[in-house]
Amino acid sequence: MKIAIVGFALSGFSFLKSVIDNKKSDNIEIDVYEKASEYPAGLPYEDDSLDKLLNVDSDEMIYPRENKDDFKNWMKDNNKKVDPIEKMAPRVYFASFLKDKAKDYIDLPFVNIINEEVTDIGVSILDNKEIYELKTRYRKSTYDFIFLASGASFYQDPYKLSGEESYIESPYPLRDKLKDIDNDSSIAVIGTSAASTDVFRYLMNNKNLTKPINFFTGDNEYKIVDIPYEGNIYDKYSLDEARIKKALSDNEFIDLDVLIKRIEKDFSENGFDLRYAYETYKDHSLDLSRKAIDENDQALAFCEDYFMQFTVFAADIVNNLRPQDREIFMDKYYKYLIFLGGKTPYESMKLILKSYDEGKIDIITNTHSIEKTSDGKFFLKGDRTANADIVINCSGIETNLSKVSEKIPLYESLLSKEMIMADKDGDFIAVSWPRLNPLSKKYGCLRNISITGMMVSGTDIDNNDARCIQKSAKRIGKILVDDYNL
Ligand SMILES: Cc1cc2nc3c(=O)[nH]c(=O)nc-3n(C[C@H](O)[C@H](O)[C@H](O)COP(=O)(O)OP(=O)(O)OC[C@H]3O[C@@H](n4cnc5c(N)ncnc54)[C@H](O)[C@@H]3O)c2cc1C
Questions:
Q1: 133: which residues sit within 8 A by CB, 6+ positions away?
Q2: DSSP structural state of residue 72
Q3: Which of 14, 115, 225, 285 is the most exposed place for a label (fewest CB within 10 A)?
Q4: For residue 65, how far is its CA from the centre of ligand 1 (angstroms)?
Q5: Smallest Cα–Cα separation from 463: which of 323, 318, 326?
Q6: pLDDT, tens digit, for every residue of 260-299?
Q7: Is 233 in the pocket of ligand 1 (CB under 6 A)?
Q8: Beta carbons of 253 and 320 less than 8 angstroms apart
Q9: β-pairing verdict for 29-33 and 444-445
Q10: Distance from the CA of 151 to the center of ligand 1, in angstroms?
Q11: Are 83 and 57 in contact (CB under 8 A)?
């Protein structure tokens, strides 16, 4: 079987590893296409300043749970230390870990690394068999199976500033994009996500800015702080693989009532209430983070750790609910956990609060316009206004399929051939679960192409998480090996 992997970062490597670890035959040839010269790394972990830190602990990066300490142990063995102040690992170390683990797989004689961008994929169906034709600028090849792991698209441009001078459309690599910033510049950052925390940290550690940084954001100031939980969540979280399997062996679907009761029981048995954290902290203000830190709020900490565990199983659970129950679950119950997505690391939040108190940063909510003025500056309007010499965009990755395909040739080719279509409201790509095969009106379901990553997070929900990415890629590798007796 001829397999192509498009994109060789966390997802592409996890799939390659799964196929090779599970395969029993030699009837296999794998071409791995990667457009970047560094691999396996990907945008989050690519070579950059050590100021770029993981937004979760090192033992929350690896799936499955029994291997959770792999990265942490690798750091120890390789004498790599967490950031002394924020206590998180630099993200580039995770790429070094991946490169180390990938060596033996890349060197296998039936694995070919092709350092080129895939710009076009087409399909023809002969006698019910799908044959894929893949093109780069320099070559054209056919495959029996494609694993499309091209990951994050690009940063959104909500204020249509692309191309404007002094507008930094994407903050990465930090050390290239931010190094020339003058200390006397007035800087505005769009967004208060993990990327904007990277920008904040880089500027604080590498510059002596004379003016405060203005963060322009939506209706919430800064994602709530991640309070360290003093208990052991693994003893307290019960909705794991075994329980999901059991629920599905008894019934075709997961029962919504049983699911809700199980989650509520996990909370109540530990003396907490599922609704508390949401009701108390959903506004994500700096004052609320300050309160959580001052009180060492263990009820919030429990909910955060619970959500960290739930995330790994969220897509399995949600996709195995009856459709009408799924809507109810997402609208009425999931909000109690999902609001914690992208929370701010504990020590990072302490630094942010300190900088805020010292007047080094300011946060302006409800941003509604940013315009370039005739003197070459930016005028930003939210609840308050500000001028800036430089605007750094950290507004989030684009997932609208039309917009993505306008800029990325590969997606344009798939969309124009009707091999893919958008999921809900134009966002994401519609795929089946758990094979992540694209759905379309023209082809129905293309069974020999699987798509992972952010562009399928309408189905592989909450997969903006290293463990979820590994889980889906690993599972699809195993399905492929089993289906074709590889
Ligand atoms: C800025 C950022 C920070 C994050 N930080 C964390 C974190 O701290 N912890 C965590 O758990 N999760 C984090 N995540 C979630 C992250 O999405 C996953 O951890 C994971 O890196 C996604 O892996 P991926 O392989 O799907 O995609 P990516 O890492 O985006 O990799 C895609 C790869 O495909 C290649 N590629 C793309 N198109 C083509 C093409 N046409 N031809 C050839 N190659 C191509 C790219 O060069 C890249 O190497 C972060 C995400 C982002 C965007």
A1: 121, 122, 123, 124, 140, 141, 142
A2: H
A3: 115
A4: 21
A5: 318
A6: 999 999 999 999 999 999 999 999 999 999 999 999 999 9
A7: no
A8: yes
A9: unpaired
A10: 5
A11: no
